[in-house]
Amino acid sequence: MHVDTQLEAALRALDHWPRFRLRLFFEGIVVGILSGTVISFFRWGLEMGTVWRQWIYANVLASGGVLLNLSWFGVLLAAALLLWHLGIYEPNAGGSGIPQVELTVAGHLPMRWVTVIWAKFAGTLISLTGGLSVGREGPCIQMGAAVGCGVGRIWHDDKAQTMPRYLIGGSVAGLTAAFGAPAAGLCFAFEEMKTVISGPMLLFTALAAASAWFVIEVLFGFGRVFPFQNTDTLSLLQWWIVPLLGGMAGMLGAVYNAVLIRLTHWADRSPLMPQPVRVLAPFQIGRAS
Question: Is the pTM of this model over 0.90?
């Protein structure tokens, strides 16, 4: 049976299990709370790392001392080597993390959820603290999915028919906690993850998103990354900008993806870019800029 067909059959089957509605309710909240807690600590670490890096640049490296700059080079070299070894130890923690989650949901890639959580957590914080331009969306989605996977394993509910809901619910909670945006998390589940909309799955993901939002905003007080409520709304005469901007962003995104894929393939085949160099080069380029 095709994997997508299996997933659709599993989600439709949930509609005929009313005795599990209360269990789904509880599990969704647990996935959201745990994912939100992990991402809350991640966001706290990210803020501390950013403050530390800015202080180093402004108060230590600004002096231009050769010894201090060589010391910072040594720190970046150690960070690059640590990331290299993390990638060897847990290859699935590399990259954005979203493709790995999609493959796991489809049943093509096993997930060592404990290892993925701490390797992704540490690796992303090291990268961001070192000055690399790493988005928080993918790592938070993968960490949330790993938390959801862990909840399913602890519940001894790790069958191929039921594990996708834990992975998808954790992904939703991770994205919600990353930006403080539960609606964006739900859109991600049913658009990017191509999740079949069903009552139980909608309930599970909504509870996971709401619980993660409660943890990130009420308990930890981080709130939204983009406070759109402070922006003015467009007038009717300005709405022509929206489709124009969308079209331009879509074209630029397509060009960017094409160039990125070709550069990645080149780096994979090139003897000039062994793995240690690929890890160290971004740190040094970021330091030079």
Answer: no
